[in-house]
């Protein structure tokens, strides 16, 4: 089915359906019933969608290893699903490391990233015996050698291959001018390889690169694969991770390959350059989780300015989805209880924060008879909403629920006013 009423099916979680009244259901549950039970705003995640995406990515990658990039959605409940599905977990902080351990991820299946890891983070990773520690700088090599134990720490080196991905400047990471990794063009990568290979306290097993996020052009990945495969083989290393960053469709007119197609293409490209399947790793994050969730809001104000614009203000905003403010990211909006109704008016869907830039969808198409109190939904919010959320304006963060087979459960409870002040000393 290409459409769920006015909602394009490719923007919806895989169990999404429209009932006879025109209301969206996810996991067999109606959106309005979920909001009535758990409040608004609300993140609704489809567990079947998450598991299906993980399985598709693993199937496409053959005998290679799939690492879930947890920054996209690092909840402990997500770690449990990752563990059950047999994927690895990419952590970029002490918090993401602890989420993995609390969720039951085997330490051997944890990969620790970060361009400025503290001694505390490095010590915790060594103590937990994480499977791979991705070294990002010469300073980090110094720290690891200071922390050296009787057992050599297993590391990868992150390399910036000089590939400039076709994506937003803020999420490019593989070009020469980058805060990440060892620069290949100026010789830093080769110097780092030689140094770590000579260290009795470190065991270099592989290389890593990541060229950026929300990348649509295969040419960018093709260049990175060729460069990194050659460097891995000439260095005599056993493992190579080419990162992730596969683009995701957020808008009705966007269409991208499936996550299984992406990983399948990468597997073939890496093997064509002389690597074996069991040597290769990939890190899809957004591509696994983005379309698994929707965010549902309640309309509080409709402000019509004749011959200028109509503003529809909801009870969330940039605190639960900062991507439009940070990157100018585009989203669609729908009324989930009236998907058979014409969405025939163009409005600005805005949040409740004291910022003119607090705009969720600048040109949202919603019913012209929309009224205060109705629900409005933005799909494809499973990545970088919860994880990048904030308490700006002292707004409590929404609840996060997981739905499956007609059942819902809270995986992150809604914050209370008491939660907002729990860290303050003078209360």
Automatic annotation (TrEMBL):
Superkingdom of this protein's organism: Bacteria
Pathway listed: Amino-acid biosynthesis; L-lysine biosynthesis via DAP pathway; L-lysine from DL-2,6-diaminopimelate: step 1/1
Binding site for pyridoxal 5'-phosphate: 245, 283-286, 384
Ranges for domain Orn/DAP/Arg decarboxylase 2 N-terminal: 49-290
Catalytic activity line of the entry: meso-2,6-diaminopimelate + H(+) = L-lysine + CO2
GO molecular function: diaminopimelate decarboxylase activity
Cofactor(s) this protein requires: pyridoxal 5'-phosphate
Family as reported in the entry's similarity comment: Belongs to the Orn/Lys/Arg decarboxylase class-II family. LysA subfamily.
Function according to Swiss-Prot or TrEMBL: Specifically catalyzes the decarboxylation of meso-diaminopimelate (meso-DAP) to L-lysine.
Designated name of the protein: Diaminopimelate decarboxylase
Native organism: Ferrimicrobium acidiphilum
Higher taxonomy: Bacteria, Bacillati, Actinomycetota, Acidimicrobiia, Acidimicrobiales
Gene name, Swiss-Prot/TrEMBL: lysA
